[in-house]
Design a protein that fits this description.
Elements lengths: L23 E3 H11 L4 H10 L19 E3 L4 H12 L11 H24 L7
Antiparallel strand pairs: 1-2
Length: about 130
């Protein structure tokens, strides 16, 4: 399983803002995904964690020294996204305890992020290969 990162220059007039790009994830989203998946699927979790050790996408001058504003472009297979979403979904099963509620809420937000990427991957498929 390989996960790739790439940088994109924000001065590129053809580039989209990172908030509108489903294949761009924040450092926090990737690290939380890693934390949730590391016991279930350690190889995929480690691959995700390694993304944040790469070069983040270019950001504004005011955020240049703030690691919390780092974003990374990820390239994953549809199968990897499925495994990630299944792992995140497992956080809500069985009913979460009050102590675990924050983790469950974060997992649900991550499910939304990874689902957007899954939808993009499906749209990128040739029409005869779409589900």
């Amino acid at each position: 399983m390989s996960l790739k990162i790439s940088s994109r220059c924000s001065s590129d007039p053809n580039s989209q803002h990172i908030d509108n790009t489903p294949d761009v994830f924040s450092r926090g989203s990737l690290m939380f995904t890693y934390e949730i998946l590391r016991k279930q699927t350690p190889e995929l979790a480690l691959t995700i964690r390694n993304v944040v050790h790469g070069t983040p996408l270019e950001k504004s001058a005011q955020d240049i020294n703030n690691r919390n504003t780092d974003h990374f472009r990820v390239q994953v297979s549809p199968e990897q996204v499925r495994v990630i979403i299944e792992g995140l979904t497992a956080q809500d099963t069985p009913a979460p305890s009050p102590e675990n509620m924050g983790k469950v809420i974060m997992a649900k937000a991550l499910i939304d992020e990874w689902t957007k990427l899954a939808n993009k991957l499906i749209q990128d498929l040739p029409e005869d290969q779409r589900p």
